TrEMBL record:
Pfam families: Acetyltransf_1, DUF3335
Protein's name according to its UniProt entry: GNAT family N-acetyltransferase
Coiled coil feature spans: none
Stretches assigned to the N-acetyltransferase domain: 2-148
Any one GO molecular-function label of the UniProt entry: acyltransferase activity, transferring groups other than amino-acyl groups
Annotated keywords: Acyltransferase, Transferase
Organism in which the protein naturally occurs: Thiosulfatimonas sediminis
Amino acid sequence: MLTLRLADKNDLNALVQIEQQCFVYDQISRRSFSHFLKGEHSTLAIIADERQMLGYVLLLFRSGTGLARLYSLAVVPEAQGKGYGKQLLAWGEQYAGEHGCVYLRLEVSVNNLAAYQLYQQRGYKTLAKLSAYYEDGADGWRMEKRLHSKALSRRARPNFAYYEQSTEFTCGPASLMMALQTLQTDYRANRREELQIWREATTIFMTSGHGGCSPHGLALSAWRRALAVELIVNSNGTPFIDGVRSAEKKAVIELVHQDFLTQLAESDVKVRNDWPNTEELDAILARQQPILALISTWQLTRDKAPHWVVITASDENYVYINDPDIDDKQPHLSKTDFEQIPIAKGLFWKMASFGQQKLKALLVLGATAPNS
């Protein structure tokens, strides 16, 4: 008799044995399995008969999003070809869908033809080819299945460049470069440009460490690069000034901000100093233009930090973002978990507010700056 159930700590030894039987490279360690069994954002299920465990499926969830990832699926060699993998996959899809996920993504080696064909049969679409993705040097496929029709299909989402920030303080430049690379076919994002934009847009200081990018400074950087820019910000105050205690640092941040305002007055950037209502926000999203949004990372990482992301698409239910900060605190996450991420609209607009000031900011970007 077959049993398909959630795994528990008593399954740890059998899980490790299955992993060693099924994979030569990229094996999940005992320590990692133990972590996943206790994890708040992971789910493990196993299939077994009365004699032994036959396979498992491991799902990862990105906090605050409608995205799940099939991190691993394995069936012992002697039980392969009997439909157990298909049962585990179907269970994973149902579980993810029942827990608020609208997409299930995965990676699979180009050499694992049987798994690739199974995923195709189950309705997964190929998103990208991953060069030398696995330990043995093999390429991989990134794939996705839409679990609910209320989310955009792959074809309905626009193609959008992705760039991972290379420092902890350059989310703004990384987000702007993603928009530039999407809007300007000859634009090439690189680290030198990333740091140059940061130098142009930084507030100098922040709560700790290097300053992040001001909405006003980032708007100027976008305008200088021949984009049409509309800056929407809910306050005339100085961004992030409440994050520092030193009077000297506050004076520097204020001076930088006043300089940004002077430069904006001499530019073609459109500045709106009030926050749109819900209908206006929907209309802005409906333009299908790249939008840089300032958010708080609390819902995603449980850190209260200001963070820039790119809105790549939207529909009635979700906002889709590219997040440039691949979290090194969670090594099992990959680019798959940070690109075209669906976030429920209501939750996203709650995220889009930072600090004591409740600062809200959007940069709506177009391909060509007026009068350029």
